[in-house]
């Protein structure tokens, strides 16, 4: 798909596009695996041989920008979840929202006050001397 996209930003796809323009006699097509095409079987054999060869070179293939963004986002959310699970504060909210996520919940103010226990409740107001008992 990247090779057929004229606006692709992938350097590998751009290089292949350039080669296909230079050599117009080369045709690319999709072949189902295990159908017995001689060229496909030979390509599989050569690919497997190059992987298992002791002389095989390691080639660094750059990640696409979108895959890097996705990976970094997943790692950040995992780290955020770890920190949140270990935190000693905010336990009342943690009981309701176990997993961290980037999606907003748009809950009414009263519900947020109830969940966080930061509202017009005697137990909360007692902490600041605004109520005479915490029941």
Automatic annotation (TrEMBL):
Taxonomy of the source species: Eukaryota, Metazoa, Ecdysozoa, Arthropoda, Chelicerata
Protein name: RNase H type-1 domain-containing protein
Gene3D superfamilies noted in UniProt: Ribonuclease H-like superfamily/Ribonuclease H
Boundaries of every RNase H type-1 domain copy: 1-52
An example molecular function term from Gene Ontology annotations: RNA-DNA hybrid ribonuclease activity
């Amino acid at each position: 798909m990247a090779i057929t996209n004229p606006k692709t930003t992938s350097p590998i796809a751009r290089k292949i596009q350039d080669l296909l323009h230079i050599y117009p006699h080369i045709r690319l097509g999709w072949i189902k695996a295990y159908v017995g095409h001689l060229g496909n079987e030979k390509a599989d054999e050569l690919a497997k041989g190059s992987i298992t060869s002791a002389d095989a070179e390691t080639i660094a293939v750059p990640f696409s920008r979108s895959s890097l963004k996705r990976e970094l986002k997943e790692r950040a959310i995992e780290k955020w979840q770890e920190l949140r699970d270990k935190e000693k504060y905010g336990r009342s909210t943690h009981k309701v929202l176990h997993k961290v996520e980037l999606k907003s919940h748009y809950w009414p103010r009263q519900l947020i006050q109830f969940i966080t226990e930061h509202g017009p409740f005697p137990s909360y107001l007692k902490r600041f001397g605004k109520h005479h008992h915490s029941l």
